[in-house]
Amino acid sequence: MFKVALCGPSGAGKSFIADILSRKFSFVHLSAGAICRDISLSLFGNDNRNNLNAVSEVVRRHDEQFFIRATMKQAESSIELPGCRGLVFDSARYGSDFVFLRRRGFRIWRIEAPDSVVRSRLLSRGQVYANDDLAHASETEYTRESYDIMLINDGHPEDHLILRIKDKLANSI
What does the pLDDT look like over 130-145, one tens digit per residue? Predict the structure, then answer.
């Protein structure tokens, strides 16, 4: 079974690539970010970057592995699904995430996109990033970690991205 963890900046397309792996390659999509967004929406009625960062910081101070462990619990029931070819975790961000995931056999794929594409994606979902947001640990820690595969998500049509992903999967064996 393939196990892939995606890292990269907000707006690079990690969730989109995880969705492609799920739809086209029978992976189970695991999203720690979805848990954080749900908490932010419940508490604040929105999931803007300041609130997401605040939720993340408070929870991680209590248990730095909370989001990743909660997400992996979802995987326990999914692994046995018929046709499941792999797991894709869409948001490795912190050094401790990389340690946790590598110990469980995940390969790390770094997702990058040109800055203009990233900013356009963020604006399309109503997010504007300030310099403080870009300096937050959730946007910087992953850059100090090693990765197994680099995938550029430069805004080309989905079919091109699917071919790139297929190639990366073939080279991951």
Answer: 666 667 777 888 889 9
